[in-house]
Write a structure and sequence with these properties.
266 residues, alpha+beta, 13 strands, single chain, 6 helices, Glucose Permease (Domain IIA)
């Protein structure tokens, strides 16, 4: 024991301590290398899913190890069709179809164009509306209105000397002037009608009765079909209104009701 005590008090203690430190350092280096090796294996397994199945059995096999960068690069590598293919068959405008601004500028596309025409060419294809179509109704003469339709208002009759309603319109017209049919229809009367004198009555397609009094030299007879504007005769005299200036009298009736001829002809 005395020898051991002397040894520890001398250089022996330093040697033992140095040996212990070396052993501890060696153990620490070995432990660090071992841990580093395991960490390297795990890191390699994360980078390579195939090797992780062999070298890292503790890692969940269902873990998706694909990085966002890899997904984005896969998606953007899909081929795309050129945008020009979608408009490959659109015909190009030809400069030969443009109007020159002169007299021949509206002639349309040239014979070699792909069916492209100028607006003027399209407009000329539609047939113009016929300007000769017969009017729905017309005034029997062109003179001014002497006496208008009065409706329920009483007016004075110079010829009869009393107050009564005026159920039609009196148009001023010179004797012998041509009288026209105010509407198309069937002639139901062509001759004398009591105090109204020579009268022509026409029933139109709507069932209205047009009566024109003061018509002489009749050109139609009952049963005839006439068109608006067709000649019925000439201006004569209205017996019950003979005190007025020369005129013809026009009435329009719907059943037993008198209508204002001016409104009907609008």
């Amino acid at each position: 024991m005395e020898q051991i005590r002397k040894f520890l008090q001398g250089k022996g203690f330093a040697l033992v301590l140095a040996a212990c430190l070396l052993a501890a350092a060696a153990a620490g280096v070995w432990a660090v290398q071992t841990v580093r090796g395991e960490l390297q294996k795990n890191l390699d397994g994360l980078r390579d899913p195939a090797s992780s199945a062999r070298t890292a059995p503790g890692i969940d096999e269902g873990l998706d190890l694909t990085t966002p960068d890899e997904e984005d690069s896969t998606e953007w590598q899909q081929p795309t069709a050129p945008a020009a293919n979608s408009v490959a068959n659109v015909p190009k405008a030809s400069s030969s179809t443009a109007p020159s601004g002169g007299a021949g500028g509206s002639s349309g596309a040239s014979s070699g164009s792909a069916g492209v025409r100028e607006p003027s060419a399209l407009q000329t294809e539609s047939a113009p509306a016929s300007s000769s179509a017969a009017p729905a109704s017309t005034r029997p003469v062109s003179g001014r209105i002497l006496n208008a339709y009065s409706g329920d208002e009483l007016v004075y009759n110079k010829t009869l000397g009393d107050w009564r309603t005026h159920n039609g319109i009196d148009y001023a017209a010179a004797k012998g002037e041509k009288v026209l049919a105010p509407a198309a229809g069937k002639v139901t009367l062509a001759g004398a009608d009591g105090s109204w004198g020579p009268t022509v009555a026409i029933e139109d397609a709507s069932g209205r009765l047009w009566r024109i009094s003061g018509v002489a030299d009749l050109k139609v007879k009952a049963g005839d079909t006439v068109t608006a504007g067709q000649a019925l005769g000439t201006v004569g005299s209205v017996s019950c209104e003979c005190a007025e200036d020369s005129h013809i009298h026009l009435e329009v009736k719907q059943g037993e009701k008198y209508l204002d001829p001016a409104k009907v002809m609008q």
